[in-house]
Amino acid sequence: MATQAPTLEDTSLKSIIAHAKEYGFVYPSSEIYDGLQAVYDFGPYGVALKNNIKQLWWKSMVQLHENIVGIDASIFMHPKTWVASGHVSSFNDPMVDNKDSKKRYRVDTLIEDFAENLRQNGNEDKAQHVIEEMEHLLEQDNLDGLHDLIVKEQITCPISGTVNWTEVRQFNLMFETKVGSVAEEADTLYLRPETAQGIFVNFLNVQKTARQKVPFGIAQIGKAFRNEIVARQFIFRMREFEQMEMQFFVREDHGMLWYEHWKEKRMKWYHALGIPEASLQYHDHIKLAHYARAAVDIEFNFPFGKKEIEGIHYRTDFDLKSHAEVSRKKIQYFDPEVNKNYIPHVVETSAGCDRLFLMLMSHAYREEEVQDGDKVKQRTLLKFHPTLAPMKGAILPLVRKDGLPEKAMALFNDLKFDFPLIYEEKQAIGKRYTRQDLIGTPFCFTVDHQSLEDDTVTVRYRDSMKQERIPMAAVHKLLAEHTAESTFLKSL
Ligand code: ATP
């Protein structure tokens, strides 16, 4: 049976979703109209976290490499782009409808969920067998075979609980829109389903104007849109999301070397963010796109299972060649090292900003028991890497009188040019610490009566909850040391 009671994993995803909403990270889109499925808005702390992720990625890829440059291409592209890339003809997912619930499912997700359920019930061998059979059928584009597998395994619809399935069909995932003032003259445009093509069509422009020599890379962060049919698991699978992609152009005979290079380098980036090695793994693609020579996913152990956060793909010269053919433009590079013109090969790293966001929330979210005097109490906190934390510190006057707010505000005004900080004077100090734990602020600085006398403050550390007195003049250094991007970048 595919339907089941909520598991522990579902419960913890639910806690993360509730927390994200309650504390200003992620809201359902247009919630006053009951939301829009698979579309989300980011709140004050969410947008800060997201910007930090993007900035760190950008600096790690572009700023640290003299041979990687950035661009920002448009979401709309000439419609022929998507003919050349293959998206018009084959950006499809096999889907199946349940005739009773009228719900549509992606076949791979339906079968994977079934296998996961088997696994949780201790039936590892059977689960493995079902997945292997599915991968084999997907590889052969055998839609009837996939239908037969669903029926043979009696995989039920989670809504209706029946096995009353339609045949399996392919559905294109691109969103269409019309441009032009009169309907008859309107042209169909697509919302880009990936940012990569904006890079390929600009290959010549960038190579020439940035005077780059192969091997070199072009990086981009931007929105992508996919009409995902099964959009569950919060911001893991959205219809509008953000990608962080880098296409690295290389000589064919160096292709596999660069593939291995980026595969390793991208994994190290996640370790540097503090994600434990045991929570990440590689997953080699069994079904390779016809043009790809190698492809691997980096997976994170989400509360709902091991899922892709980033793909590293060796795409050969497929994209540039295809754009050259469809546009009838010569897209080539003259390599002085080998004294030859050729179409470069491409190794790409393609990460989803929102999936990284969810990974960081899942990893940071803790419910723990702490000693409070002689009592044990529960606290919830977000243990973000300080470089990624939305707010780096909170400046808190102990009471709202005796000149403490003025003293605290002066500290805030002094530091605000370098760090995003919170100033808060309402409520008891313990409650204010709790609030900072909930949004993941690594340091709180409390200004009390002693501060007026000797210019010291109490620093309270989020993770250990330890408190110590430090000179006010040392606050800037403490924040800089712990939160600076440069410290992270040097560790790569
Ligand atoms: P999946 O198999 O999970 O749909 P994919 O293999 O189609 O992912 P890619 O086309 O390789 O994904 O896209 C690169 C990255 O973009 C993914 O690793 C993921 O982080 C992100 N991504 C893709 N689709 C979505 C989505 N619907 N919502 C959020 N992020 C996405």
CATH H-level superfamily of the largest domain = Bira Bifunctional Protein, Domain 2
End-to-end C-alpha gap:
46 Å
Uncertain ranges = 1-6
Helix content: 25-40%
> Strands across the major sheet, in which order?
3-9-10-16-13-12-11
Number of domains: 3
* C-alpha geometry: globular
CATH topology of the largest domain: BirA Bifunctional Protein, domain 2
Q: Which CATH architecture of the largest domain would you pick? A: 2-Layer Sandwich
Structural class designation: alpha+beta
Task: Bin the strand percentage.
Answer: 25-35%
Average pLDDT score:
93
H/I helix tally? 17
Largest sheet: 7 strands, mixed
Our Rg estimate from Cα atoms comes to 26 Å
**Can you tell me the CATH class of the largest domain?**
Alpha Beta
Distinct ligands, ions and cofactors found in the model = adenosine-5'-triphosphate
The total strand number stands at: 23
What is the structure about, briefly put?
With 492 residues, the chain is an alpha+beta fold. The protein has three domains: 8-90 and 174-362, Bira Bifunctional Protein, Domain 2 (BirA Bifunctional Protein, domain 2), CATH 3.30.930; 92-172, Herpes Virus-1 (2-Layer Sandwich), CATH 3.30.40; 384-491, 3-Layer(aba) Sandwich (Rossmann fold).
Structural description of this entry:
The chain is an alpha+beta fold. It has three domains: 8-90 and 174-362, Bira Bifunctional Protein, Domain 2 (BirA Bifunctional Protein, domain 2, 2-Layer Sandwich); 92-172, Herpes Virus-1 (2-Layer Sandwich), CATH 3.30.40; 384-491, Anticodon-binding domain (Rossmann fold, 3-Layer(aba) Sandwich). Helices cover 37% and strands 27% of the residues. The protein has 17 helices and 23 strands. It has helices at residues 8-22, 44-63, 80-84, 87-90, 107-120, 124-139, 143-152, 196-200, 203-209, 255-272, 318-327, 353-364, 404-415, 429-439, 449-454, 475-483, 485-490, and strands spanning 26-28, 40-42, 68-70, 92-97, 104-106, 169-172, 176-179, 187-190, 216-225, 240-250, 280-284, 294-302, 305-316, 333-335, 340-342, 345-352, 365-372, 375-382, 393-397, 421-423, 443-447, 456-461, 467-471. It has a seven-stranded mixed sheet with strand order 3-9-10-16-13-12-11. Strand 14 and strand 15 form a beta hairpin. The protein is globular and about 75 Å long. The two termini are 46 Å apart. Mean pLDDT is 93; it is low at 1-6. The chain binds adenosine-5'-triphosphate. Adenosine-5'-triphosphate binds next to strand 10, strand 13, strand 16 and helix 12.
